[in-house]
Design goal:
The strands form 3 sheets. A 7-stranded mixed beta sheet has the order 3-2-1-4-9-6-10. Helix 8 packs parallel to helix 14. The chain contains 16 helices and 12 strands. It folds into 2 domains: 59 residues, no CATH class; 307 residues, Alpha-Beta Complex (Spore Coat Polysaccharide Biosynthesis Protein SpsA, Chain A). With 386 residues, the chain is α/β, with parallel strands linked by helices.
């Protein structure tokens, strides 16, 4: 039989335990303070002899969980980057901004393409930045390299002349390979075949604003084919005969039905098509429907340009080629200016204005907006809707 003292002690202990459980259920702060996990963290966080305190991890209680759940309704889309292993610092800079501003909420997959195999350092650094899927693709040599049909003597002479004239990338074959690949091959890559839309992102660009809606779904639901943020003229020295080939393509009877009614042709010319005004959408940023490039119209157009050899005999860029293709093979209403996406690719930037700037929490200076520059083609784009 228990003595009175022991009965008293058991009563006290039982009362304390009972009160502990009652207060634990009734008061979250108390429960957090006395939880076993907290006690464990404090034990783990206790100083260890010979170990600097900063090497002890910060307890989880100080962290705010980022429990983003990707929306159930999403487009068939991917974020696409063409990059080399040596571009890794610029790649992670761009990718981190895309994640923070947009993709940590929507979790669209990434597709990285390279004419060489990506190394482990590249793969590890980009994979750490996202909870979305990441794929790494090797570009087929026949899609990347200068075609055998190109007269190398003629192409070499053209490069030498461009170097003398100080044309940017005038002497570079790899740059020409890239422009041709982006113009007519990237959308054929096996890794992109499952997707309907893509967002092209380049290394070392800047995204100024939060994007809290899904631009892919916007494109899908509103029948948009091509989206841009900056429009400007091309250097005439790089495309001296491009418009001649465009006119030849359009003048060919077999191509008559390919150009759509209600297109954006007037964005490209100020005199009814006699001359090219050099305006183009800056394709280092583009969100587009891959069917625009996969379709028979653009396919015929690219094949015509590729046969002409201007990617190597001159220095045709994918920006004017894509822009002309979009202007001819999409209705003007299907080309969308993403006014609310703040973006910079050196040396130009688009900075949203007014309410869009505030809503996106943009950090660019609204006064520094290329749309207002005399060199911008944005006004010519607006003009086609008047």
């Amino acid at each position: 039989m228990l003595s009175p003292t022991r009965r008293y002690l058991l009563l006290v202990v039982g009362t304390v335990i009972t009160l502990h459980f009652i207060v634990s259920f009734a008061n979250e702060d108390y429960n957090h303070m006395v939880s076993l996990r907290r006690l464990k963290e404090h034990v783990l966080a206790a100083p260890t002899p010979g170990v600097p305190p900063y090497k002890v991890p910060v307890p989880a209680e100080y962290r705010i969980a980022q429990n983003y759940t990707a929306p159930e309704r999403k487009a068939s889309a991917a974020i696409v980057m063409l990059a080399r292993n040596s571009d890794i610092d610029g790649v992670v800079s761009s990718m981190k901004q895309v994640e923070d501003r947009f993709n940590k909420r929507f979790r669209y997959p990434y597709v990285f393409l390279n004419e060489e195999l990506f190394d482990d350092n590249f793969k590890n650094r980009v994979s750490e930045l996202t909870d979305a899927g990441v794929q790494f693709g090797l570009i087929p040599a026949e899609h990347w390299n200068q075609p055998a049909e190109i007269d190398e003597r003629k192409a070499s002479e053209a490069r030498e002349q461009m170097v003398k004239n100080r044309v940017i990338y005038g002497g570079s074959i790899p740059y020409r390979n890239m422009c041709r690949y982006n113009s007519g091959f990237f959308y054929r890559h096996e890794l992109l075949k499952p997707f309907q839309y893509y967002w092209r992102v380049e290394p070392s660009v800047t995204f100024f604003c939060d994007l809290e809606y899904d631009p892919f779904l916007y494109m899908q639901d509103n029948d948009k084919m091509y989206g841009f943020t900056v429009a400007l003229p091309e250097y005439i020295a790089t495309v001296p005969t491009l418009w001649d080939e465009v006119r030849a393509f359009m003048g060919n009877e077999s191509n008559k039905g390919l150009v759509v009614e209600g297109n954006a042709f007037d964005f490209l010319t100020d005199n009814g098509g006699k001359n090219y005004n050099l305006c183009h959408f800056w394709s280092n940023f583009e969100i587009a429907n891959l069917d625009l490039w996969r379709g028979p119209a653009y396919s015929a157009f690219f094949e015509h340009l590729d046969r002409a050899g201007g990617f190597y005999y001159e220095r045709w860029g994918d920006a004017p080629v894509h822009s002309i293709g979009a202007a001819l093979f999409a209705r003007k209403e299907q080309i969308h200016f993403f006014d609310d996406i703040g973006y910079r690719h050196e040396p130009y930037q688009h900075c949203p204005q007014g309410a869009a700037h505030a809503k996106g929490k943009c950090w660019c200076d609204p006064k520094q907006n290329f749309d207002n520059d005399y060199y911008s083609c944005k006004r010519k784009f607006d003009r086609i809707f008047q």
